[in-house]
Description:
This protein is mainly alpha-helical. The protein has helices at residues 64-68, 85-91, 109-119, 121-124, 160-163, 168-177, 188-201, 219-223, 293-306, 319-327, 330-339, 355-367, and strands spanning 2-4, 10-12, 41-43, 49-51, 106-108, 216-218, 261-263, 279-281. Among the domains are: 106-223, Cytochrome c-like domain (Cytochrome Bc1 Complex, Chain D, domain 2); 265-367, Cytochrome Bc1 Complex, Chain D, domain 2.
Amino acid sequence: MYMFTRNLTLLAGSIAIVTNLGAAKLTxxxxxxxKYPYQSTAxxxxxxxxxxxxxIIRKNVITVKExxxxxxxxxNLSLGKKASKATLKAWNTDVRPDGKGLPDGKMNVEEGAxxxxxxxxxxxxxxxxxxxxxxxxxxxIGTLKLHPRTGGDPGPLKTLGSYAPYIAPFFWxxxxxxxxxxxxxxxxxxxxxxxxxxxxxxxxxxxxKDIEDSTVIDRNFIKSVHMPNEKGFEYNNLRKADxxxxxxxxxxxxxxxxVVMHIKTDATIVKPPFGKERYSFGDKNKKKAKGxxxxxxxxxxxxxxxxxxxxxxxxxxxxxxxxxxxxENLKDVFDHAINGFKAMPPKGGDASLKDEDVKxxxxxxxxxxK
Length: 370
């Protein structure tokens, strides 16, 4: 879901919901699990018990027996079976800001630094400084208050240390999505070690003490962490509309004459070079990309891995890296690029690309790596 910070910066992430309609508005997310305001149910204005999504709870309307053994069972139809504890445990991987959901496991910061160097540094740098277009993870604490007036003035640097309001949900994200080339390959101990190293890089103190190399990171330690920007966020009450516009009943805008703008570049790109075709305004005014389409796609989609050779990707311009690929059937090379191969996702991770454009990109990379 989305929420707004005090300076109206939009952030996608996990955030608590105030479910008690009569409660005063809270202005930040407390990390103390004993004070966490998340409730599973609340009462609406009519006094009915509702879930956090607004659904009314009706007790004893249907029993578990009626669900799993319905009249349709005799007609070769099935409504499934009751989930086992093992199944629920496998699916229940989310971690709340208060730390609920954190699994067992532990690792000290020194060992975590080694895991980070082996699994994360290729993209994020040895000290979280970021490589190429990949995110910077350390530094920036105290910069969120900066308001640059010119292009030469320093501005806010949003990192895990400076911007994140809480650390616990990052366990869930790292274990689910990282490393980029092999998601879900890290075990619980390794993720705890990585979190500890990132906290140390950002000089986060816990209970007034620095995080040392020998500090053991586990579930209880993560629950005790308070991030510098913890009070920089406001709650997003899903029961309140984001807008207060009046519904149009007459003289409405003719939507067929409206022009929709589509952003054509990857939103993660934070520095040049950008693709030459950045925006398109409807079919009539669509601007075609100039120059080599393969070059444009490479810069926007492929450079992140192929510039540095991450996860075994053949490095752009390196003759030796591409020598073996040149020996392969070009049709097979195209197939790998389009459908994915080993650590490389299909179409480099951009499913919107046409097959012919992917082929043009492969040809461009081969040509520049002779």
